Amino acid sequence: MAPLISVLAVSAMAQESTSPRPPKQNEAQLRKISYFADGCYGSCPSYQVEIDSLGQVVFTGHAYTQVKGTQRKQISPQAFAQIQQLTTKIRLRKLDRNYGPNSAHCPIWRTDASGGSIQAQYAGEEPINYSWYNGCTSMSTDLKPLHQLATTIMQVANVHDWIRVANTDPFKELNSQP
Question: Domain ranges in the chain?
């Protein structure tokens, strides 16, 4: 009987570590998170993805996206819990807010690159904004948690088909005119 109990205990621990858990009492409850992809001088997609704690996803394509305007879809609240868990793991609330030009994280940069930002809304609090610039040539590893969070937001929202664009040449129309 003892081997069966230990197998069940190991199985329960494995399941517990891979499934998202609800936030602890002392953790702030994430209510909504948004990821903004800024454009660049060229054909970088510009869009926004917002996910709330009920699993409502709102995508807004601005430029160089397959879909322009607002699209909505539903994901499970458990999927949103993955984001809540990651924000706790990376200690989002303790991260710096600006990783752009002239910040301590980006003393040297090049122009015409895209950037991004994340806005986190916790229960009963004002939104917190985090921004970065992809043209920072001396970017420290400090930005890695925000990139990890942006990637997770995109995976959970699963809106890649709304972003992909076949033609990414912004000058194609100009070049085809006589």
Answer: 29-168
